[in-house]
Each structure stands twice: as C-alpha cells, then as structure tokens.
Amino acid sequence: MDKMTQMETKLDDTEKELTELKSITQGIFTATVKGVYFFRFTMFNNLNSTPNSVLILRKNEEQIVTLWDVSATDGNDTGSNAAVLSLEAGDTVHVELSPNRQVYDDQAHYNTFTGFLLFTI
C-alpha cells in the first residue's frame, strides 16, 4: 500500500470515528446490523412552571412511542417507556424532547436512553 492510499485510509477511518462520536454524543443510535432491538428511555420532571415534559422515541423520523408527565402539586416525577423495534442496518433511533418542554437533570443523570440488540434477522 503506497503512502497516499495509507493516508486516505487513515482519513476515512478518522471521519468514520468522528461520525460515530457525533452520533453517540447527540444520542442517536445507528443500527449496524439488521435485527430486533430493545430501547428504553427515562425522564425526570421536577415541580416546575413548565406544564409538561414530553419525550418521543423515533425510528428514523417516525414516532414510535411517547412519554408525558404533567406538572402538578405532586412534586418530582419520573417516567419510562420502552419499545422493541425491527431495524435495518443504517436505521437510526433517538429520543426527542418536544418543543417548549423540558426535563430536569443534574450530576445524578436522571434522564437515560439505552438500547441493545436482541437478535439478528
């Protein structure tokens, strides 16, 4: 392999790593293999003047399930939702906070988004 090919390969690998890192830090899961996956997300809403916390789990841009919490006089609340999804390689899954809504978080990390492959198909 000549030096130019080695440099191009190294740049391709670096670009791929940066793309994967961007996806991870933005909370976007990208399926690498066709299969059935499990996803779960949890949110925390403290007593606040904001009327609702609303989260949406999306496969690509399709809404799959939602999670709502209405602020009231009952104090801090937490909620979770989950889905089992059939994904093609390249499909993405992410959690979206609805406009003009909020969730509460601090160093305890109350809000989570997790998922894993159940089996390939």
TrEMBL record:
<dbReference type="InterPro" id="IPR050822">
    <property type="entry name" value="Cerebellin_Synaptic_Org"/>
</dbReference>
<protein>
    <recommendedName>
        <fullName>C1q domain-containing protein</fullName>
    </recommendedName>
</protein>
<keyword id="KW-0732">Signal</keyword>
<dbReference type="InterPro" id="IPR008983">
    <property type="entry name" value="Tumour_necrosis_fac-like_dom"/>
</dbReference>
<dbReference type="InterPro" id="IPR001073">
    <property type="entry name" value="C1q_dom"/>
</dbReference>
<dbReference type="Pfam" id="PF00386">
    <property type="entry name" value="C1q"/>
</dbReference>
<feature type="domain" description="C1q">
    <location>
        <begin position="1"/>
        <end position="121"/>
    </location>
</feature>
<dbReference type="GO" id="GO:0005576">
    <property type="term" value="C:extracellular region"/>
</dbReference>
<keyword id="KW-0964">Secreted</keyword>
